[in-house]
# Entry
Amino acid sequence: MIADDRPTLGIGMVGYAFMGRVHSQAWRSVGAFFDLPVRPVMAALGGRSKEATTAAARDLGWAAAETDWRDLIARDDVQVVDICTPGDSHAEIAIAALAAGKHVICEKPLANSVAEAEAMAAAARAAAGRGVHAMVAFNYRRVPAVALARRWVAEGRLGRLHHVRAQYLQDWIADPAFPLVWRLQRERAGSGALGDIGAHVIDTAQFITGELLEGVSALTETFVKERPLAGASAGLSATGATAPADGTADGAAGGTAGGAAGGTVDGAVATGAVDVDDAALFIGRFSGGALGSFEATRFATGRKNALRIEVNGSKGSLAFDFEAMNELWFHDHTLPAAEAGFRRVIVTEAEHPYAAAWWPPGHGLGYEHTFTHEIKDFVEAVAAGVAPAPSFADGLRVQRVLAAVEASAADGSRFTPVEES
Amino acid sequence: MIADDRPTLGIGMVGYAFMGRVHSQAWRSVGAFFDLPVRPVMAALGGRSKEATTAAARDLGWAAAETDWRDLIARDDVQVVDICTPGDSHAEIAIAALAAGKHVICEKPLANSVAEAEAMAAAARAAAGRGVHAMVAFNYRRVPAVALARRWVAEGRLGRLHHVRAQYLQDWIADPAFPLVWRLQRERAGSGALGDIGAHVIDTAQFITGELLEGVSALTETFVKERPLAGASAGLSATGATAPADGTADGAAGGTAGGAAGGTVDGAVATGAVDVDDAALFIGRFSGGALGSFEATRFATGRKNALRIEVNGSKGSLAFDFEAMNELWFHDHTLPAAEAGFRRVIVTEAEHPYAAAWWPPGHGLGYEHTFTHEIKDFVEAVAAGVAPAPSFADGLRVQRVLAAVEASAADGSRFTPVEES
Amino acid sequence: MIADDRPTLGIGMVGYAFMGRVHSQAWRSVGAFFDLPVRPVMAALGGRSKEATTAAARDLGWAAAETDWRDLIARDDVQVVDICTPGDSHAEIAIAALAAGKHVICEKPLANSVAEAEAMAAAARAAAGRGVHAMVAFNYRRVPAVALARRWVAEGRLGRLHHVRAQYLQDWIADPAFPLVWRLQRERAGSGALGDIGAHVIDTAQFITGELLEGVSALTETFVKERPLAGASAGLSATGATAPADGTADGAAGGTAGGAAGGTVDGAVATGAVDVDDAALFIGRFSGGALGSFEATRFATGRKNALRIEVNGSKGSLAFDFEAMNELWFHDHTLPAAEAGFRRVIVTEAEHPYAAAWWPPGHGLGYEHTFTHEIKDFVEAVAAGVAPAPSFADGLRVQRVLAAVEASAADGSRFTPVEES
Amino acid sequence: MIADDRPTLGIGMVGYAFMGRVHSQAWRSVGAFFDLPVRPVMAALGGRSKEATTAAARDLGWAAAETDWRDLIARDDVQVVDICTPGDSHAEIAIAALAAGKHVICEKPLANSVAEAEAMAAAARAAAGRGVHAMVAFNYRRVPAVALARRWVAEGRLGRLHHVRAQYLQDWIADPAFPLVWRLQRERAGSGALGDIGAHVIDTAQFITGELLEGVSALTETFVKERPLAGASAGLSATGATAPADGTADGAAGGTAGGAAGGTVDGAVATGAVDVDDAALFIGRFSGGALGSFEATRFATGRKNALRIEVNGSKGSLAFDFEAMNELWFHDHTLPAAEAGFRRVIVTEAEHPYAAAWWPPGHGLGYEHTFTHEIKDFVEAVAAGVAPAPSFADGLRVQRVLAAVEASAADGSRFTPVEES
# Structure
């Protein structure tokens, strides 16, 4: 290897399924595109099975494998812990890592409950006092088009905001025969579409507008109340690559319809109850006075990963759909009506967020780049000793919105204020 | 004129602004494209001003002018009364016309209150027993793409319905300087965006799905609470052609931002309070189990007349946007995933609803054709002695949804059942 | 009827199939939307069959029927002759009408040959000296979006023009079993896709750019060289409504695949040779230096009536597709790259060409409105005593382009200058 | 590092600008997503400047740097030579590498002349006899949507092909002040838009259709004939990231408008002649009977990297635009007309080419992935001892099309057969 006189930053990652794979690609690539002040080193990967973790480490480019996350945290060559496990283990790992003086990136949703998220946010606050930083991985903020939307709203180009129309639409469990994977189990996932993808669109909406959701009125529904049990092997063997979810967690990314034949008991298909939401709808009010309409569902047939948001302000509007992630649609309402209209800005110009690092105009980026950008921002913040964003407090705020949605749905859709921190 | 041995059907229309102009075009055109069992005759037009009504009658092709709608109803050569006035006069005119044995077409919303709508529905029910028929003019049902959507849902091509995502977005009052026209006054208009355009999208959603909205949770907002008074002349002089509304009512269609300088008192601009909603959002449940998300607003900058609806079912999805009214997007979820996707069906094939009467494939229709279709269906029903649809009862049902939305919004967004008739 | 003190303008129309139907709708509607200086009167309709012509006149609103076009021209109550027949009769009728002192609107292409077109243009030139005017009916110039495109190019908003990319794509004869209707016969139609739809896109391109095509290099092809003969009845009985063509001519508009069972001789299907082009492609140079790429075909499966044109200039670009006729896409290249992009202008604002006469923003127009606009412009020009556009000379210019295309295709695609008049 | 018992495959790459950066990313990533039979090792990078090449090697992940490509070829740890230089050096390097028994990947266009390409193809043919393989890097074949298009055409889903409509539109030199970078110099680049991007779209069209272009009729144009000389530093210092080209060659990727202040002589801006085409248009015939229309330009303002292709066949049509690279539009003409239409297939399903290796449905890929796929296919072929595609013979065929285009343009657009090999 050619000498590199920058200091190194050792990374330890926990989990290697869908999220672990995409985080690995980001760690592997970030240094070739961004001129970082430190050199990230992919030091060690944590998992449960020795064999599987070692194989994953080899394939994904990690120098070592650990089968206990406590050992991973304890390694001297690890300064950053990247948590890619399901939500039920986030709090324990993150708090321990911060306590050990390791910076933390944690996948979203921050936790499976407000209480856990509060504990994590408190730990992060305490660690920050010691120069140890934490970030929650809402990667969609790092879509160049989303970052550009944020920039334009912040610059006042939309004027006073009136409407936010936000949806996250998928269709991977529309088939009632799709099995009861961990994402459909409250114990593991916390909630259903709400926490998995609703959390993303809530964060994205708050990020773009720079406003907070102050209260919500909600409906949730479980369309398919009973599903075949996932086969014994479905959990870990399902490859992240084909998991039809925007899942975040390693060790259990989704499972696939094809591979996930339900368990069979005496010839009958064994089924289990789905105890999370299939869809969540809510309307709400933002701190700046805008109205918001939100929807998260895994039953929108034909919509694969449609994180969509439209913002209407007095001076203009913006529209985005992740299915065409390199485009941001902008209506400039200050132009004469005869020449105004939504314009398709291809967000690949050198002046666009993150874009100068990549390819010439019109040569678009993909899903994984959002993680590369996230990690670039994280590394730069950590190296500079400043707090990366979004913080655990931001993650907690999203968690409180999720809780308000569930509370409203459980209380006749009554308008429910989001608890302040 | 060349002899025509069909019986005639004399039409009397009240109102000649935006809705009156488009209804006139429909009456004028329908016979050239559809082979009707009777020949509609544009007998007389009703308005308040002798001069203006006469001029309108001449320009729009009506044989006579009346300045009292009672006289219009009483004419022997009038068998159909077509009501194109604002909502506050619908009940009185419609009930009188039905009592006089005249068939009635009435613009939407049926009335400005549930009570009025109930009286109208009762009158229509009674009249039907005497062979006299009434229809409420939800013209968007007659967009070929919307009628096709209804057909496909009814045929079961979407399977079980899970989601309805419906919006009616306009932007014509986003400017706070836009004056206080009648559509922004509760006394005349009943409500704001909710009744004007929300009514349309509610009817469209119920029509396409064949399901009823059973309950709603709502938020409404008036973003601009005080507006310049419309100049003395703004009401009637504003030409319907430039009125930036989907308004329905004659004698006062909207007014324009440009022409509508506010009244001035001692040099200061006189203003008045806006007492209707600028926007209404609600979520709800359909009778068949689907969840619905609705939004009606006149503040969605860049959206001109975006009546949009997407329906997701277990076997497929449909999407429509009136701004591209000749297109229906269909996702067939029964196809292999590798070749499925939303397809753009250009609804101009001879097999499509209404389309065979017009032009070859790809030669699209416009807004006014929805009225031509509506009148064609009405004339055929009346000639056949059967009830046209949507009935006044259907209009009442929409009115009850509007009332539930307002009740929910006034009660902390609590889920509010739609009252059954 | 209510008194109207404007002078009348009597119209006599020849032909009542597809083009006759759409022209009738325009004559019927124009006065209700545009404030014309004269009142058009639909005086008489000309056709060959007494019975059919009378029925058409009744249905389409013409006051009388004539079975010889010479008689129609001779009528005292006819001041305008509107020619909606196939191209092989244009010259004779138009020249006679002009000689008789009648203004003429003639469907496109102006004629089936350059020689005929020259004779017509000469007759028009002579008539103009007597205050008698002629126009060729390139209706697509009157799409509001196309007229807006012309306006913006003329204003210099595109800067120096570099590229014109123009296509007219249909698919109605892709099926080899589609019969040999008159549009596929050189004797009647002059040419195939080239003259029928290629003529439109040539005129549209020259109109928008304000430049002339100076020379072309071309390929033409007849993919299906032999087709079933159209049944005896296919010619006249095929209704224009379902004819899948942008046909212009009456008495035989297209025929339909369904209705057009081929003639049968002794049990075998009788076939005939197709002696026109199925598709024509050419590249060329415009007078201002732009390069042009053109394509006209009836074999572009899935494209129904896609008259498309994109123009790229140094300061901006425009794109249009008739399948979304209410939209004009505009890229303003003078904006900073970071915020530029093609914007979708919905061409329904009061400031847009023709739009103020119709409905509020977002309430789109349809195919037939292009004819209403055309007739409005024609009537205004005739009433003002000025020459309407496009003139027969313009029609001749298009004819010369068509001739150059055919000449190039016949001569090894050699670059062939368009003959100057 | 964790042990990996697969054999290694040592890579030596020449050039490190735009193409070198993207190839590096592909070599770096391919093993983490595809289960390769060998382990690629990024052994050495070749460039001219010691310092710059070493820095690039460090940033891009190459283990060593060489300043003479002959030394790179000679290294024992190099089994593959990846050529990312401008076209004028391709022949010399490739032929030497093949002679040395090294497999070769060479960027496109294969060479700057037919003669060079012939020599390269001959060398590749000879090497293949010794088990040494060569591939030309037409990366757009490896867009999943393009590969899917090829699959569907090969399966006969489009029936008989009638039309190919292909464009490659960019706008990065529309500004006359953009300097005379190497891509605008015949000596370095061979030709202008034609060879740079026209080559891509020719290959893509032949790949998708499985047919060869047999002859063409062409026009080329240089709109801006004189440009400022690029500053002394413009060549190598311009970063590939911002080079607004689809360029392929290292050592000189494009230069940017901003950074490229023209050279100044005595206060005046020194200019030079542009001796390549700014745009090339041609029409042609495919071996299977389809007509083709092609356009390559860098003056299509607003189009950033619009490699577009539409194919119309008797049974269906396909449309693709690289600016929305994850979508393939498919019209199935065998469906009933009433439900047919172009459908947007998001090419991210596990069943789609290459897609299973990446992310769940709807999580799109970017530009660089096409190179990862290309290298994956190359490595698999080399490991299996079979010839990778496209071969140098395929590259030569494209070169012959380019030559025919230039010959036709120089000979009055005469139809010019493409020479057979």
Observations:
- Chain C has eleven helices and 19 strands.
- Chain C touches chain B through 63 residues (CB under 8 Å).
- Residues 8-140+384-397 of chain C form a domain with the Rossmann fold fold (CATH 3.40.50.720).
- The longest helix of chain C spans residues 392-410.
